[in-house]
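Entry type: protein chain
Record version: 2
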Amino acid sequence: MNTADDELPPADPAESLRLIARERAAAGRRLTPDPRLLLWPWGLAWLIGFGVYFLRFGPDGRVFVAMPGFVPLNVLLGLITLAGVVTGVVGARASRQISGPSSRQGAMYGFTWSVAFIGMAVLLSRISDLLPVPDANLLWAGAMVALTGVLHMAGGAIWNDRILYVLGLSISIVNMVGILAGPGWHALIVAVFGGGGMLVAGLVSWLRMAR
């Protein structure tokens, strides 16, 4: 019985190693969700949501676009919720193909995000009413963005993902610059550099995966 040429094992050990590397890379692409679907929803949510905040609560109390004061927060929360749903669905589909410690690790990390943000919201809700509106907005935004940066850095360290770690570090630096700039400016800086940074990171990760 004849064996097809493409079914024969490689005669060259180097070719065998290259074949193993190609198959490993192909398996990694199948199991890893598209980073654009994980980062772009959040990037757009920050870019639009914090952009609306800047238009309503600008520096020194300036209003660039007249709108009710509750609109920016509702827009930001709505976009963040939508981004969370999109990334949650993408992550859940990817995790179906993975079992064991890696699957549990991802689930625990995702649960950590939820607990961290709920805990932070409970804390801030107790003290934000004691501050003027601009300072309260800065407190909420600064704290939540800081938490996001730290969790991204933690995820990058856990999975040895340099792009994710650098993204978290960049978000943290952008947040600190925005806080120092003050109310109004913080929203603009986070919208442009934080949201824009996520869009760029998603594109870079996708190009890296494609290669």
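Comment: The chain has a mean pLDDT of 83.
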